[in-house]
């Protein structure tokens, strides 16, 4: 890709960018949220036309008009924001648009079989006839990945493929990547996770604010160097945890149950405390939080706030009890794509703007959070769907900060967020705790939980397997509890 320029109304997303990808290698694109990484690959696959510039593929100039054209030519992509057809089956999703046919009818049997074969090849245990909506985000992601590689492509683009995956799934993905490489497939990889980037990359290109910064072999670069290229400054403290006083008990959860996913979960949370929730995907952390927040039916147990039992049947009840929750899956539960940043920010707080609505106040509040979180956007009236993934996450965080909750639950708060903004979000969480708020952080990134939390609850298969204090905790210990087998769980409880 040579001298690629891409303009959106009011935004120059790419300004003379280049990228050159070699067969049989992993080429990673790096840059802060909004740097233009996703836009660059969208231009490549014909999802968006370039404003100017040249794309040369296998020695010929190309300009794909649709993603289907790109696919036919051998370029497939796993998108940053999943877009599965939730009501259809897994195999329908994998073969969407190229369903095998028997005469004029779809050959469901073949589809099921082919799908199973693809899954088995990489050891994925998913029933192809399961409805897509019944899968976890992680499983959906794996399905997307299988779909992309099933096209026999020459280039596979992965835009933050591991953001929803567990460690073992990430390992599976890396094995797939190795296999693709050995077949001469080029992989364009986008991720904010430094460790994994340095594990798998051959080449790394860095972008900043739509500008091309540099490309080099991974072995010539270090994490610190890449960060400097990305942000133009050094970041010294990723987890600026301030010490703050921990006060009285604010939340007590007793034997909480929700079907099989949450079984007799008990824990307490104090004023000014940041409580981490660790575990592998499927451990029931998200489901526990959804039950507390009223998104999922509680089948047993009690919740107390400030010593009084509270009854939460819906998110509205939770908000009324001053509990806020930033959900894990921003596409499904969070953003309203066609609405503006302003409306998305004030959404959980609408009632406070009176009637008729005080839209000036709305704008002021939104603007304040755009500045505080460093959200990159041309204006607060921009539809949130136009923002880069990481910037959408910041808008959602702003939504919950604005409701000024006593208890803020954040589920994977920094997923898809660049290193600079990550440190900002950790600072904000720590500041909130300092102001006497209580915070629950669910995160699959162990360094994150270790960095921000005062205590860490570890779950496995719907059960709490351990609760660790800041002094005693380590990655090894968390992993031990996260993988503890059932027979020993009783002893810990
Ligand atoms: N459809 C669109 N309309 C208007 N502006 C857009 C559109 N898509 C992207 N942009 C803008 O282009 C810029 C680059 O966005 P892009 O999504 O490529 O960033 P990114 O590097 O992928 O960031 P992230 O790490 O957050 O995913 C951003 O300023 C974004 O707001
Ligand atoms: Mg992106």
From TrEMBL:
The keyword Transmembrane does not apply. It is a peripheral membrane protein. Keywords: ATP-binding, Cell membrane, Membrane, Nucleotide-binding, Repeat, Sugar transport, Translocase, Transport. Its EC number is 7.5.2.11. Pfam families: ABC_tran. The keyword Repeat applies. InterPro entries: AAA+_ATPase, ABC_carbohydrate_import_ATPase, ABC_transporter-like_ATP-bd, ABC_transporter-like_CS, P-loop_NTPase. Its main location: membrane. CDD domains: ABC_Carb_Monos_I (cd03216), ABC_Carb_Monos_II (cd03215). Residues 1-234, 245-486 form the ABC transporter domain. It is an enzyme of class 7 (translocase). It catalyses: D-galactose(out) + ATP + H2O = D-galactose(in) + ADP + phosphate + H(+). It is found in: Cell membrane. GO terms for molecular function: ATP binding. It comes from the Bacteria. Part of an ABC transporter complex involved in carbohydrate import. Could be involved in ribose, galactose and/or methyl galactoside import. Responsible for energy coupling to the transport system. Belongs to the ABC transporter superfamily. This is Ribose/galactose/methyl galactoside import ATP-binding protein.
